[in-house]
Amino acid sequence: MAEQSRERVGVYLDFDNIVISRYNQLHGKNQFAKDKARNHVSSNPRADAEVTARIHQAMIDVGAVLDYASSFGSVVVSRAYADWSAAVNARYQRQLTDRAVDLTQLFPTVSSLKNGADIRLAIDVVEDVLRLTDLTHVVIVAGDSDYVPLAQRCRRLGRYVIGIGVSGSTSSTLAAACDEFADYDSLPGVTSAATLISMSTPSAPTPPAPPPAPPIPPAKEVPAKKTDAAASVAPLPLVSAAVPALTTDATPTPTARKAATPLLLRAMELLAKNDQEWQHASALELQMKRMDPSFQERALGFTQFSDFLKSRSSVVEVEQKSPASPVLLRLRG
């Protein structure tokens, strides 16, 4: 069993800030407002299909943010602040509920739709830091310079502050006020903005195909003469061509087994930030359980975590010099 971490992490997302910043990063400055993406409904037949595609391309991977936060310790607080009545934010309902994120509703009070998330978020963070004395890390997911005093105050109170923001929309003063700052594009599992932009760039038009050749008139069929021998042969019964698929495992493969390898790879990427070539298997097991508390090697048919690692020998290399020494591993390639 993996040991319990002493590090306890609080994650606070200024959701409107990160969604708008990502959209503008991919599609141009102030494009979120120009496209009126906040209340764009894709199910509306009259909706602009291009705006729908842009919103989908700019979707935030909440799991990647929380997984990165869990690399610092156990996530005990996770809150997202936004106007959840807006169509663009309602798209994230499944992502957020699957990761047990608390949703704080902030209705806009002025025509500019500014919802005061920075004030509410800051009050909650300070309250949690003072109330939860064992909270060791604070993760602020935003890029606004308004959060600089909050980061500074948390550091003075002895907390380790991590910031996460979108490149191009993050204040340099906020990054400097944190103990550590990560670009959203650099998080494991996130497709970078440069890759998404290159994928959406239209390719050169394909030259038109040459006109098809005129069809060749079919030859006249000559009816074959039936022989007595052919007529006396009874028609063969039709045989089904369907062959039952061969199975290599008598036990049905659980859904969890399919998700185990991607979970393993992302956990290894997060541990790699310590700049060590070999990682301890115990640290990897703890990280995987932080990311997915439902992960159990026994549910996958393995009695020990080391057996699970050996079954993934195509992606990780396992080393144990003696039975008493710790199990070490690293990514192949």
Structure notes:
37% of the residues lie in helices and 14% in strands. 28% of the residues are buried. The model is unreliable at 229-252 (pLDDT under 50). The two termini are 29 Å apart. With 333 residues, it is of the alpha/beta class. The protein folds into 2 domains: 8-200, Rossmann fold (3-Layer(aba) Sandwich); 255-331, 2-Layer Sandwich (Nucleotidyltransferase, domain 5). The protein contains 14 helices and 9 strands.
Offer a concise description of the structure.
By secondary structure, this protein is an alpha/beta fold.
Question: Secondary-structure element sequence?
Answer: EHHHHEHHEHEHEHEHHHEHHEE
Described by the principal axes of the CA atoms, the overall outline is globular
Radius of gyration: 28 Å
Unreliable residue stretches: 229-252
Helix percent reads 25-40%
Tell how many strands the DSSP assignment holds. Answer: 9
Structural class: alpha/beta
Secondary structure elements and pairings:
Blueprint: E1 8-14, H1 15-27, H2 31-34, H3 49-57, H4 62-70, E2 74-82, H5 87-90, H6 93-98, E3 102-105, H7 117-131, E4 137-141, H8 148-156, E5 160-165, H9 172-177, E6 180-183, H10 193-200, H11 228-232, H12 255-271, E7 279-280, H13 281-291, H14 305-311, E8 316-319, E9 328-331
Parallel strand pairs: 1-2, 1-4, 2-3, 4-5, 5-6
Antiparallel strand pairs: 7-9, 8-9
Helix pairs in contact: 12-13
